[in-house]
Amino acid sequence: MSDIGAYQGATQTPHEAGFGDYVELLKPRVMSLVVFTALVGLLVAPVGLHPVEAFAAILFIALGGGASGALNMWWDADIDAVMKRTARRPIPSGRIPAGEALALGLALSGFSVVMLGLATNMAAAGLLAFTIFFYAVVYSIWLKRSTPQNIVIGGAAGAFPPMIGWAAATGSVSLEAVLMFALIFMWTPPHFWALALFMKEDYHAAGVPMLTVTHGRKATRRHILVYTILLAPFALGAALTGIGGPLALAVAVGLNLWFLVGALRIWRRDEAMAVADNYAAEKSFFRFSLLYLFLHFAAFLVEALLKPYGLGGW
């Protein structure tokens, strides 16, 4: 991290950090997605866990996700300080010292992995450990500042939670878990590239080689369309496995058609059109991408809940 030493030395906390500051350090919005997809992965698995074990598993997966967030904020404190979207985070705003964030991230990492292993099994614990390492080291430290493919490869970190949930219940990984992983992995690039289209100046100011900065917005629009097309088979494939059913398939068809329409709309626009309406299409696509992922996993969950009544699944 190029300027983190100087940044850390210059940063002083104006007041004692409160509980809310530490919660923010764990990236609660990202953690909510981690919790939800991990919970779905756990509940749709063919092996059930005792409610206490299931609660413990989700709690420790959530803490592992929070640990990743804290480590990411520690490493990215220097670039967060120059980006409008992130300047008010706990470290650049001076509410939490960078060293304290690092200590918390490392402590939660070790605690969450060990406790998940004790509560469930070593397969789940190993996957959680690898996820934290991947997000903190492979993505944050290596990829984010070195390649425009940062969000493509780094997206794997956010795709692991449903696989971890599945492993917590079954002790292994199967096709269904891999397809849930692939669904999030392929969804991540168009989701973040849409954000980058209307936040380009932030990434440019911070020197982050996001695709919009290195290849331009026209190329980014084309990449969004390509990845949206490539995403659909994984979404449909997951709906056709044991975690899917008629409802999940109908949801997958509808959502992917709508997502494709949005990607085509972005692809057909030029920068003048986007500026004229303040990136309305790009912002709409980004908002819908959040709903897209939630509804896919919600459909898997509903299918699992209906199965005991003979109504869900194939």
Automatic annotation (TrEMBL):
Presence of keyword Transport: no
Keywords on record: Cell membrane, Heme biosynthesis, Membrane, Transferase, Transmembrane, Transmembrane helix
Record field: transmembrane: 30-49, 55-75, 96-116, 122-143, 150-169, 175-198, 224-241, 247-267, 288-306
Reactions catalysed, as given in the entry: heme b + (2E,6E)-farnesyl diphosphate + H2O = Fe(II)-heme o + diphosphate
Subunit: Interacts with CtaA.
One matching Pfam family: UbiA
Source species: Tabrizicola soli
Listed name of the protein: Protoheme IX farnesyltransferase
NCBIfam families listed in its UniProt record: cyoE_ctaB, PRK04375.1-2
Subcellular location: Cell membrane
Keyword Secreted: no
Main location: membrane
Job of this protein: Converts heme B (protoheme IX) to heme O by substitution of the vinyl group on carbon 2 of heme B porphyrin ring with a hydroxyethyl farnesyl side group.
